[in-house]
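Input:
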Amino acid sequence: MLSTEEIDEIEKAISLVPVRKAAGIEALKIVQEHRRWVSDESLREVAAYMRMSPEELDSIATFYNMIFRRPVGRHVILVCDSISCWVMGYENILAHLSSRLGVKLGQTTKDDRFTLLPNCCLGTCDCAPALMIDHDLYRNLTTERLDEILAKYE
Amino acid sequence: MERPLTQHIRADQRPLTLKEYEKVGGYEAVRKMLKGMTPKAVTDLVKESNLKGRGGAGFGTGMKWSFVSLDAPNPKYLIANADEMEPGTFKDRILLECTPHQLLEGMIVAAFAIQADISYVYLRWAYKTASTAITTAIAEAYEAGYLGKNILGSGYDLDMHLHTGVGRYMCGEETALLNSLEGKRATPRAKPPFPQVSGLFGKPTIVNNVETLCCLPHIVNKGSDWFKALSLTTDAGTKIYGVSGKVKRPGAWELPMGVTMRELIEEHAGGMQDGLKFRGALPGGASTDFLVEQHLDVKMDYASVAAAGSRLGTGTLVILDDKTCPVGFVKNLEHFFAQESCGFCTPCREGLPWVEKILAAIDRGEGRMEDLKLLEFHTKYLGPGNTFCAFAPGAMEPLQSALKYFRDDFEKHIHEKVCTYQTVMA
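Output:
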């Protein structure tokens, strides 16, 4: 069941567009914000509310990189793997993160603390390598700084 | 040297508030325009200024607007394309984060020129700082009467909304962006009809890049001759250039259009890091052809970069140094393109992963000489005219030029069955 809070936010998104369906992506974003990821059940609930078939909404959900259709941990690490970061040492950063957390790209730590994901250019190429954790951007990364950064997230 | 777009950016990069922006002449262009200019006069002025789109394609901005019929009934839409996601590009972020009101003012100018009544900032999800800055700026602009009904008593109405994306490179392509705003998969649309006739929700729509829009208030205030005189070449204005990769001082700088690649790298970026040599550069993001040492004195404007066999693109250089493997470099680019292909047309969806696999095999030392022919085959068959949009042809640009300029490296990987760059690093 969608919560009253979720419905209020979805209604606001619908009010801003001339066609109900146009708020479908917003609705997915809203539900993900509340539930961390979009499960099959969540997807069906949103689809019903948006008066769309689950298949139609899923074709949209699975198209976009930032709609998570699989569970993620409490914090999502998005490591920039695009060209400037690659030149500036992305592979070292990824190797360090992988070994510290014991996970590969696409996996979540056993304690559900972090999910490690690759990400396209974060648009901060003059300060490469870079990554984001949740809403926070970290630039000019070194392997030494990574441990300090990870410690901030419970 | 004048730097109209970035002159008021603070050292700590905090955004200018409305009051601060007004104090340095902000919204004067809107006042001037609404007091005494017709929409057609604004379009004509921008045409005369020779402003070309800064998002990569370089199409004349005034010309683009002129295809919107002023007689068409409302709603009409103006969209700021702030979905900056071209690998190696970080110029719009600076404008969005530091001078949000400059963008808003530019949007009001563009919207008035086409008589749009609804505008959107289509912002990339990852730009959180920009999102806060734009949200605040829009609220301030409504409060001060620069947005909403009857702007400054002129009778002109304009609403503005911030829309944050959910991540897909394709959303930067203007028709895919429109589909995304309509809540659909971001696949490109067939043209014609062009968005100027049938765009967002089937209504006349203009999509302009952030840097393009930021030029507009200055053109209205100071005129088209002034704007043209900012440049060193026939392409008008200033340009926000950037350099990333292994240089001493990576960064972005607003400079006259037409400075040379050498000046950017040696003067502004401080030259290559110690012990490294320049081998090549993508002049304007991942989807542009490599330029190499013989091109260092090429002027970074649309025509000169095109004459050198590449594209100005976004004007943000990514540098390849002599200790970074060109095969690995291109493999990284093609991985990006293969991942981000929207899958709508077959050559792009199937061809790009194939290209990536071939490059990965060569990079691992498992390549064969005939693979180079296969790669060349793809650069032709995924080239212009064979795919639905410009995505795959863009993806082929760095590959075709790498095969031309760095062929020895590809062959060495195949003959020695190893990437020698990795051996050097270990």
